[in-house]
Design brief:
Blueprint: H1 9-12, H2 20-23, E1 29-30, H3 58-68, E2 75-78, H4 80-92, E3 99-102, H5 109-117, E4 120-123, H6 134-138, E5 144-150, H7 162-172, E6 177-181, E7 203-208, E8 221-225, H8 227-236, H9 244-253, H10 256-280, E9 286-289, E10 296-301, H11 306-312, E11 315-316, E12 318-319, E13 329-333, H12 337-353
Helix pairs in contact: 3-9, 4-5, 4-8, 10-12
């Protein structure tokens, strides 16, 4: 029996998202997943594992709403922001009829989720300055229900022009939701659009505890939107999306004390990022280091062998060369000082060999 004959056609043809863990590698320095180098310590306080968890853990919702500056009824918590990306498609897009727009180079899960669900998609490549091509988006709004944009953008690290986001919101009024992925917003809080919810009923904002909160392994994310959107998402989300231990730790991470620690970690990481950038600027094999408002930098090299060379040295980075307009570009997560120094020293050796 050929099981593939029973599989949906779009799934048979699907290439799964190539996550950092799926790609693998044998390394000592892992700087390919935009994780935090700091592992925080938590003690479980809830031992009611014999019972199902709350469908939407009240303490997590209330604390995140207070942190984000929104009402509790404007928050839904999910298994990472990835689940929220898919929930929106499941709730608002008819397979075979509706489609999404996404703007590469950007996060790959927007496309993979659409392909998995059998929903149409249109890639509107960003302009050379990695800002939105509003003209092209406007020309492709027919049958579009969701427009995914990422700011700070992964993997380029830039923030989107706020005037462009407002233009996009005005353009999509009455026809599509605009989804702003703010997974890295803690590194650029002044650029958040969360305060715009009062004026835009079709705005959705995605957040996560995976990055600045150092909790990638927790798989806890959020969608922020006005109550009518949240009510729709509540219809399609799994009955118990957050296990009790996850909700327990997430609530602790959102305490005043741990929010202060998170803010300090962001400050320290930005210092480490500046240290890495300063060192990389000295190497002739580096063509460009792009401004970053996140916990990674995008570097363009003039040597196509850099990624493989570092991989063989046990330094695992993220090759972005297959993304539009990112030839010879590598994304480097900002790790600990020792990890960043390992990158610097390995590149220095390679650079010296070429001179």
């Amino acid at each position: 029996m050929d099981i593939n004959q029973l599989v949906r056609q779009n799934v048979r043809e699907l290439t799964p998202y190539q996550s950092a863990r799926r790609i693998g590698g044998k390394g000592d320095v892992w700087l390919n997943a935009n994780e935090s180098a700091i592992a925080l310590h938590f003690e479980l306080t809830m031992q009611t594992l014999n019972r199902y968890p709350e469908p939407q853990p009240e303490q997590v919702i209330e604390r995140y709403a207070r942190y984000a500056g929104v009402r509790a009824d404007q928050v839904i918590v999910s298994r990472g922001a990835d689940e929220a990306i898919e929930l929106l498609m499941r709730a608002f897009c008819e397979p075979g009829r509706d489609r999404i727009i996404y703007c590469p180079p950007t996060y790959g899960m927007y496309l993979v989720s659409a392909q998995t669900l059998g929903i149409g998609y249109k890639a509107i490549v960003q302009m050379n300055n990695w800002q939105l091509d509003l003209t092209a988006i406007e020309q492709n709004l027919t049958d579009t229900k969701l427009i995914y944009i990422c700011s700070p953008n992964n993997p380029t690290g830039n923030v989107l022009n706020p005037d462009d986001i407002k233009t996009l919101l005005d353009m999509a009024w009455g026809s599509a939701l605009v989804v702003v992925d703010e997974a890295y917003i803690e590194f650029a809080m002044e650029h958040s659009v969360v305060s715009w919810l009062a004026n835009y009923p079709h705005l959705v904002i995605l957040r996560t505890l995976s990055k600045a909160f150092s909790l990638a392994g927790l798989r806890c994310g959020f969608a922020l939107a006005n109550k009518p959107v949240i009510d729709v998402l509540q219809k399609v989300i799994a009955p118990y999306p957050l296990p009790t231990p996850v909700a327990d730790i997430a609530a602790q991470a959102l305490s005043k004390e741990n929010l202060t620690k998170m803010t300090l970690q962001v400050v320290n990481l930005n210092k480490q990022k500046a240290h890495l950038i300063t060192a990389l600027k000295q190497f002739s094999l580096v063509d460009a280091i792009y401004p970053s408002y996140a916990n990674y930098i995008l570097v363009k090299f003039n040597d196509q062998g850099v990624f493989k060379y570092l991989w063989n040295q046990g330094i695992i980075l993220r090759d972005q060369s297959k993304q539009p307009n990112l030839a010879n570009c590598i994304r480097i997560t900002i790790g600990s000082q020792a990890e960043c120094d390992a990158v610097i020293n390995a590149l220095k050796t390679l650079n010296d060999q070429g001179n």
